[in-house]
Specification:
This protein is mainly alpha-helical. The chain has 7 helices and 2 strands, in the order ββααααααα. The protein has a two-stranded antiparallel sheet. A hairpin with a 2-residue loop joins β1 and β2.
């Protein structure tokens, strides 16, 4: 993994998909790889994993848009600024929170809080309820934030999203909007009903049921 990094003056990144630049973000970008490297460092104590992760964070820091308060998605002709688990602020918040737990670095904590603010500001823009790039995924990140930071406000925001989903879809007996456009309900974990159900179980008992999002990096989108 380390050997495959593109090392530039802006930091380290990896070519994972066809794009104008190497991606930021959790699913296919530098954040997901940095998270894996930090877990290697935590288990082994080897500095090379920590240093590589910090270089990945430096790459994303140099890509950050202050105007958007978000990290770009380089897959299109022009950068986009999504707010999802897979690409953009939600996944980056997840990564930075875990990185702060491991390293105690205040800059990582500040980036996590920036990403969380961006997530909450864009909750109404999401058009589906999936874990991958929908309301359930972003709400799961807020649950994780409440656990890591010990701040109940993030959990209350996640509960509000859950209640809205229940009122709009379950109560009215209409299909849950899943992550595949125009596909109606699908059964799978990251894009479908299984993930939505998992989110509600997690919200019911966050301390017992872990977030699936930390186990799914590079699996979707």
């Amino acid at each position: 993994m380390i050997e495959e990094a593109l090392r530039t003056a802006d930091g380290w990144s990896w070519k994972t998909v066809s794009s104008s630049r190497n991606l930021t973000g959790f699913s296919h970008g530098a954040s997901g790889i940095a998270w894996a490297l930090l877990e290697f460092h935590r288990v082994t104590g080897e500095r090379r994993f920590r240093e590589a992760a910090l270089e990945a964070f430096r790459y994303e820091r140099n890509c950050f848009s202050h105007a958007e308060q978000n990290w770009p998605d380089f897959r299109g002709e022009e950068p986009g600024y999504p707010v999802y688990w897979c690409h953009g602020a939600a996944g980056i918040a997840l990564c930075r929170l875990r990185a702060w737990q491991i390293l105690g670095d205040q800059e990582l904590l500040a980036e996590a809080k920036t990403a969380l603010r961006t997530v909450t500001e864009h909750l109404s823009s999401l058009t589906n309820f999936s874990l991958c790039h929908g309301s359930a995924g972003n709400a799961d990140v807020l649950i994780y934030a409440s656990q890591v930071l010990g701040e109940e406000s993030w959990l209350r925001s996640a509960e509000a999203i859950a209640q809205e989903g229940f009122d709009r879809f379950e109560q009215r007996r209409v299909p849950w909007p899943c992550g595949l456009p125009e596909a109606n309900e699908t059964p799978d974990l990251m894009l479908g009903l299984a993930g939505i159900g998992y989110f509600y179980l997690r919200l019911a008992d966050p301390n017992r049921i872990p977030t699936m999002l930390m186990l799914q990096s590079h699996e979707c989108c």
